[in-house]
Amino acid sequence: MPSIWAIQTRPTVTDFAGSVRPGGLFSAAITGGRPTRRRRSEVPIRSGCVSYTGGVLVTARLALVPIADAHVRLLVELDSDPAVKRFIDGGKPSTVLEAEEFVASSIGHRSMAFTADERVFVGWFGLVPGPADQRELGYRIGPAHWNRGFATEGARALRDHAFETLDVSRLWAQTMTVNLASRRVLEKVGFRLVRQFFQEWPDLIEGSEHGDVEYELWARRPDNASRT
User: Fold this and answer.
1) Helices H, strands E: what count in the chain?
2) In CATH, what class is 13-218?
3) Domain extents for the chain?
4) Which of 81, 113, 144, 191 has its CB surrounded by the most CB atoms within 10 Å?
């Protein structure tokens, strides 16, 4: 596939920081290194990443730009739609202070997603560091961009980036059992259901009586068995 930037200049972080189109700002929550040689992994063959330059991860339709202070306003508007955090806290909007704290805690492992052609804000994706060389996959996509394959496309790109560039051994993700849309995305990019669990949360959310689920995907199987 030819680079989507063949007809325009290559994107940089600053291209997406301060000047973005307003479309798609009212947006939804679904869940949630060092270069190394390409290795045999337990992921589907289809690749999600077209290029990775200057910290910007580009797919066929998305540009994932490292999160920065300049993105606070976009995050506030993203979370202003009750559907955004429906499966997190029942749909409460985020304040500016909360968005600022979110950015501060996200530096280095979350990225803002824009359409690669018109630079419309779509949502965010992240690989949050966990134990050892494991990462938690998470993302939020705006309702205006649902059912267009963006969640799958971004998740697939981060999956490949994690295994092929960051040398991550295991990816995992958690969501509510009733969040079928999120579960389908995880399954599309190769994750497997490993458990259903129940725990106490500060906010009672409709569907929480069914608990939560955890999915995982290994770069190699723990027993080193090859993928069939």
Assistant:
1) 4, 9
2) alpha beta
3) 13-218
4) 113
Among residues of the chain, what percentage have pLDDT more than 70?
75
Q: Cα separations (Å) of 155 from 49, 72, 100?
A: 10, 22, 24
- The whole-angstrom separation of Cα 136 and Cα 121 is 23
- The alpha carbon torsion through 163, 113, 101, 191 (nearest 10 deg) reads -40
pLDDT, tens digit, for every residue of 97-129? 999 999 999 999 999 999 999 999 999 999 999
The pLDDT of residue 199 is above 60: yes
Q: Which tokens in the block code for residue 119?
A: 């630079």
- Closest-CA residue to 49 (of 190, 185, 157, 168): 157
| Reported pTM | 0.78
Classify the C-alpha dihedral 32-80-147-179 as positive or negative.
positive
**Would you tell me how many other CB atoms lie within 10 Å of the CB of residue 203?**
11
Cβ proximity of 45 and 189 under 8 Å: no
**What are the respective helix, strand and coil percentages of the chain, to the nearest 5?**
25, 25, 50
